User: Fold this.
Amino acid sequence: MELSKNRTVRAVVFLILSLYALITITPFLWSVSTALTKTHHVDLLLQNWGIPPEPTLDNFRYLLEHGDFGRWFLNSLIVTVCTTVGKAFFNSLAGYALARIEFPGREFWFWFIISSMMIPNIVILVPRYLIVHHLGWLNRYEGMIVPSLTTAFGVFLMRQFFLTIPKELEEAARIDGLSRFGIFWRVVLPLSRPALAAQVIFNFMEEWNNFVWPNLVARSREMYTLTVGLQVFKNEHYSFWNQVMAGSMFLTIPIIIVYLIFNRWFIRGITISGMKG
Assistant:
């Protein structure tokens, strides 16, 4: 009886998860189908159950031959890589200080950082823009990268993970003559690969898909990122959705690659980081 009940529960769970997977993957499959469709056949997709009447790679070829597309992709790559690496480094520094260094007001600053997570990004958008404008960083990489070099969630994640690392390892390194930064760089960070992997995936996804901030900072087509540049193929009267969807494939593939590289440590980093208070 118990065995039959367990099988029923597993079957129901499997059915629910399969339905969820289908709902999740359907928009992506529709995007792929649209990207492989000729412009004059886009309206026929719904009638054809999402199967392109005449599959073609012309949309991808057009984008790669488009004068600005390569520059947009490069801009996205520069901004995303610099921001992701910067976030990983500075969030780790702040997290390590909050986890290991005794200083006045440490608990206050930790909870202050945590509370800032409740502030919607849209609220600080205007102050950030005014600061960037005052510094003369509009239409420059600095304006896209520097304001995003730290996140409250990243600091919290790294602080929680550092608390799980035995202090004895750091004490042994201090006896061997390493400085505080040397301990952080040579001992603590190498042990923090799971948490760093989680950060990299979250941050890469956020920055690679970011539209609002690059759209505010970039003033010329040469400084557009891929998310902003794809809007060129949409206008008031007609949108070339097949070309937009082809461009979205260039947005999706790098995220999949990054996840495949770091997923080995991703779940472990999230799990361990939530264990210590």
The mean pLDDT is 85. DSSP finds 13 helices and no strands in the chain. The radius of gyration is 23 Å.
